[in-house]
Structures are given as structure tokens and as C-alpha cells.
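User: Reviewer 2 asked us to show a designed sequence for the structure in our supplementary figure. I'm pasting the C-alpha cells here. Could you produce the per-position amino acids so we can include them in the response letter?
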């Protein structure tokens, strides 16, 4: 069992935010909270794609820069990005300057638009894999938390087939944790019960 860190407020938490105030706030306010907004889900998937090979705290510290650079993560605008716009993004020191990831965000925006126009909508596409309600796990140690699951592989395959980029099974599982599709707060964490009580869509 993972030994909980001691925080000034006395609340037990998952160990990964450590004592970083930004990370703790993200853990307490966002991570594991079920998200059903189509655009917000696109933003989080893209940011998790940018995280590939990096730590999430790096992306979190740059998130506002990403939002500024990527027009508030408006898929309709991103889908129309020109090569000239991509070159400008590659010069933006406030974001992760990786051509494949930037171009992947554009392709994923186009895939998102297709899902919204022709399919069930992005949120419904994702949440239908779980019948609209989060999967609640009961892990007592971070060692028990998987990097990917059969379900994340299934969702990854679906997204890739629809043209989304940087959506491998590990990225998808991190995304599922973040947007509350799975509740992977440790049972000793004060957020486990809070996220469990949140209803599905």
C-alpha cells in the first residue's frame, strides 16, 4: 500500500502530485472528475498527446500557453490551420514545439468535426464504451494502477480508425483517468469517494 504524503491541510491524496501546488490543485479539482463536454474532451486528448514522452506537470504548466496558441482549443479553427500557422506554432516557446504533435492536433480536430457532424458526438462516442458512467477502481497502491487496459486499447483503436492522432492505448488510459472515465484515485485519497459520487451523464 502506498504511504500517503502529509499535506498542510491534513487531507490524504494520491502521491503523484507530491507537494507542487499547481499539481495538487489539478489533482483535487480536475483529475478524475467526469467530463462530458465535447470540446473539453478534445482539448484534454490533444494535451495528453503532447504529453507523450514528457511528464504531465510540464504540460500543465504550459496549458494556458497552449490555449492561447491553439485558439482556445476550438476544433473548427484548428482544423483549418495552414502550413504557415503550423510554422508559427513551431516558433512558440510557450508550448511543446513538436511538428508531429502539432500536425496531429490539426488532424484530430478534423476527426473530431467528422464525429460531431456524422456520428454520435465525441462525448457520446467515448462514454458509450462505459454505458455513460465511470468505472470505479479500488486501488490501494500506485503499483496496482495499469498503464493501459483492454478498454483503452479498444478506444484507442476506434479513435485511430477515425483519424485521431497520438491516441495510443497508454495515452488513452491517461486521458480516461483525467476525464473521469475511470476513477483511479487511490481508495485512501480524499478524492476517491468524491469522484465516485458523481453521476454519469
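Assistant: Here is a per-position design you can include in the supplement:
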Amino acid at each position: 500500500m502506498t504511504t500517503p504524503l502529509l499535506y498542510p491541510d491534513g487531507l490524504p491524496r494520491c502521491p503523484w502530485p507530491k507537494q507542487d501546488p499547481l499539481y495538487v490543485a489539478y489533482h483535487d479539482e480536475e483529475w478524475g472528475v467526469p467530463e462530458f463536454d465535447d470540446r473539453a474532451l478534445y482539448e484534454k486528448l490533444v494535451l495528453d498527446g503532447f504529453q507523450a514522452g514528457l511528464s504531465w506537470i510540464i504540460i500543465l504548466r504550459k496549458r494556458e500557453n497552449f490555449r492561447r496558441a491553439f485558439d482556445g482549443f476550438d476544433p473548427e479553427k484548428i482544423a483549418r490551420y495552414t502550413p504557415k500557422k503550423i510554422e508559427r506554432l513551431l516558433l512558440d516557446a510557450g508550448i511543446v514545439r513538436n511538428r508531429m504533435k502539432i500536425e496531429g492536433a490539426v488532424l484530430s480536430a478534423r476527426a473530431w468535426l467528422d464525429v460531431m457532424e456524422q456520428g454520435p458526438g465525441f462525448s457520446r462516442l467515448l462514454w458509450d464504451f462505459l454505458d455513460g458512467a465511470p468505472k470505479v477502481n479500488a486501488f490501494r497502491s500506485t503499483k496496482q494502477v495499469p498503464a493501459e487496459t483492454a478498454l483503452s486499447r479498444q478506444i484507442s483503436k476506434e479513435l485511430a480508425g477515425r483519424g485521431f492522432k497520438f491516441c495510443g492505448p497508454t495515452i488513452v488510459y491517461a486521458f480516461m483517468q483525467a476525464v473521469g472515465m475511470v476513477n483511479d484515485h487511490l481508495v485512501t485519497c480524499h478524492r476517491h469517494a468524491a469522484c465516485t459520487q458523481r453521476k454519469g451523464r
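For the response letter, you might also mention the following. The two ends are 32 Å apart (CA to CA). The first helix runs from residue 21 to 29.
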